[in-house]
Amino acid sequence: MRVLDSVFGCLLFLGGIGHGLGSYMAYRNDHMVLLWAWSASLAVFLLAAVNLLRAGRTGDSSLAWISFVACVAWIAFAVWFGRLIGNVFDPRPLGNILITLVLAIFSLRTVLRSNA
């Protein structure tokens, strides 16, 4: 299960790369929007890093709680983005929602196991 957990952390990291490249392609002439889009890419990289760290530290409930709360927040942002573009089932928000949902479940699993 730890390998699968790490795979989803890596998928989220790859999604951050895709977000950064896509943001550059879409907003390279609008520097203000590009700045904010790249800050979201940084948030994805940090969320992926926290999840990869948590996957290796199966007894760290504090880190798992941080990861869980951040995953839930990222899911909310992805749903919000989907609503803004008029399609939550667009691959961009849907991919983020599904990957982050799996990571949230793994985070909660870590919390429950470390408290048992």
Please sum up the structure shown.
With 116 residues, this protein is an all-alpha fold. The protein has helices at residues 2-27, 31-56, 61-84, 91-115. The longest helix has 26 residues, at 2-27.
Key features of this structure:
116 residues; mainly alpha; 4 helices; 0% strand; elongated
Helices and strands, with pairings:
Elements: H1 2-27, H2 31-56, H3 61-84, H4 91-115
Helix pairs in contact: 1-2, 1-4, 2-3, 3-4
The low-pLDDT segments are: none
Strand content: under 5%
> How would you spell out the order of helices and strands?
HHHH
What oligomeric state do the depicted chains represent?
Answer: single chain
* Largest sheet data: none
Q: Count the strands?
A: 0
Total helices: the number is 4
Radius of gyration equals 15 Å
User: What average pLDDT do the residues reach?
Assistant: 96
Number of domains: 1
As a percent range, the share of helical residues equals: over 70%
Shape: elongated
